[in-house]
Specification:
Oligomer: single chain
Number of helices: 28
Radius of gyration: 25 Å
Helix content: 55-70%
Shape: globular
Number of strands: 0
Distance between the termini: 38 Å
Structural class: mainly alpha
Length: about 500
């Protein structure tokens, strides 16, 4: 271990030694103990997750061997899903499971690990798994779709196209589903122009269907480019592709975002004339857009119109209404909506609470935000955005001990932090002069196979050099360089 740098175990000890406060009697602290008790579960998935959360990489396989756990396909898939943000940890577990007697990896398990590795740009290992699948005759169209989506998300255009074109060499014939997946990968990665270029060059090879046009339509809507979206819509009609509820939903969304609310309502009228009735999702689009424009009266009226038309409100449209009230900071109305949801038997989800938390924090209603967070953990599991928001809120309030308590709760819930969550806490530690802890947290991040963001590394580098700790910086850079492998294999 490097000189002047606290060990990982030391960091965990320090985190447990946070100053006590009156807040320790809250639901959050009680939840710590409930979570600790839950870790004693006999559920093999929970047992594996506990081992993976607490074991350094060098002893992970040994700890798994000594646990006596016999993996099943279901357990392996659930563990991989839980640790999707920790690509290398997932890969080590995946390799261990493959060695166990009477166990064989499913195609889905391979796909989950391929996606997890690509997320941290471990493309060499990703292609190694693809070759392993080829040897076992497990490859299919979805295997390559997973990779094209990840390459597109990383803005690796050439690699995404290469992956699509190389399918034949691996014995998998590209079909319309693969073509649609490639287009969708670029559209969702804000590269609709490349998607349109590919479509124009390959539309004679693959006969487009309604899904193909809907993908392009949504892509131009994201840009946004209303004239191009209209052009795609016209082409779809002229080529005889049937417009369905998905197509109409996308068109309504595009028009709303372009501020053409009246036209969006006209599209809904067209839907009814074609016996394609608007659903709650389409109403949620309208409610959301009215909220964005702070037209709260129209948002409420649209919600009521939906109910008059016999359409039952679901969590999506309630979330849109919550967002509309949050936009104008009518938080009392938001809590009334939450009460109505409870009365109607509609459970709020993570998105519901995240909308409210984000607005409360933005309005500097931090105490109320913490109360909402405590309410949230009673009825649904927070996600990465939730934890990131709460940790950042406490760091901005100079309440580092509370940020660390949220971090501890997250760990007890066996939730793997995202790169953004790590970055927020590392930055908070730096702001509070806790450079040692920040460095050890960065080391933990790298150990889990999560690649740090450029700004976070730059900040730590500046602080370490300022303190004359080049040895620490060199150690961290060496570890991080192990995660930067981006070969493109044939």
């Amino acid at each position: 271990m490097i000189r002047n740098l606290l060990s990982l175990n030391k960091l965990k000890t320090l985190m447990r030694q946070c100053p006590k406060s009156a807040l320790e009697s809250t639901v959050l602290v009680r939840s710590y103990h409930q979570s600790e008790n839950s870790l004693e579960s006999t559920d093999p998935t929970e047992k594996v997750c506990k081992i993976m959360m607490s074991s350094p990489k060098l002893v992970l396989e040994k700890m798994l061997d000594e646990s006596g756990i016999r993996p099943s396909p279901d357990v392996v898939e659930r563990v991989i899903e839980r640790f999707e943000n920790a690509g290398m940890q997932v890969y080590r577990f995946f390799r261990w499971a493959a060695k166990q007697r009477s166990y064989t990896h499913t195609v889905r398990a391979y796909h989950l690990v391929i996606g997890s590795l690509a997320k941290i740009r471990q493309y060499q290992l990703m292609w190694d798994l693809v070759n392993d699948m080829r040897r076992k005759s497990l490859l299919n169209v979805e295997t390559f779709s997973v990779m094209t989506r990840r390459y597109a998300r990383a803005q690796k255009v050439d690699e995404a196209i290469y992956t699509f074109n190389v399918m034949d060499k691996f014995g998998v014939t590209p079909n319309l589903a693969a073509f649609n997946s490639l287009l969708g990968a670029f559209c969702k990665s804000e590269n609709v122009r490349k998607a349109q270029e590919i479509f124009d060059s390959m539309k004679d090879r693959f006969v487009p269907d309604s899904k193909t046009y809907s993908i392009l339509l949504e892509g131009w809507g994201r840009e946004p480019n209303l004239p191009k979206a209209r052009e795609v819509y016209r082409d779809m009609v002229e080529n005889g592709c049937e417009r369905d509820i998905v197509t109409y939903s996308i068109m309504v969304d595009i028009l709303c975002k372009a501020g053409r609310m009246e036209e969006a309502v006209e599209v809904m009228a067209e839907m009814r004339s074609r016996n394609c009735m608007p659903n709650s999702f389409i109403y949620s689009i309208l409610v959301h857009q009215y909220g964005t424009e702070k037209r709260i009266g129209d948002a409420v009226e649209t919600f009521l119109e939906m109910e008059r038309n016999g359409i039952r409100a679901d969590v999506a449209v309630y979330n849109a209404l919550v967002g509309a009230f949050c936009k104008v900071r009518k938080f009392k109305n938001v809590f009334r909506v939450l009460q109505e949801m409870e009365n109607e038997g509609v459970s709020p989800n993570c998105r519901t609470f995240n909308i409210l938390l984000n607005s409360l924090i933005d309005a500097r209603e931090n105490n109320e935000a913490f109360r909402v967070f405590r309410r949230m953990i009673k009825c649904c599991d927070p996600d990465s955005d939730t934890y990131t928001m709460m940790i950042k809120m406490f760091c901005d309030m100079d309440k580092l001990e509370m940020a660390l308590k949220v971090w501890k709760y997250m760990g007890l819930k066996q939730f793997i932090p995202s790169m953004h969550t790590f970055s927020v806490l590392i930055n908070g530690l730096c702001e509070n002069g806790e450079l040692d802890k920040a460095c050890v947290l960065l080391e933990e991040m790298i150990e889990k196979g999560i690649r740090p963001s450029g700004p976070t590394v730059k900040r730590l580098r500046k602080l370490l050099l300022k303190e004359g700790r080049e040895d620490v910086l060199e150690f961290l850079m060496e570890k991080m360089n192990l995660l930067i492998k981006e070969p493109l294999n044939d």
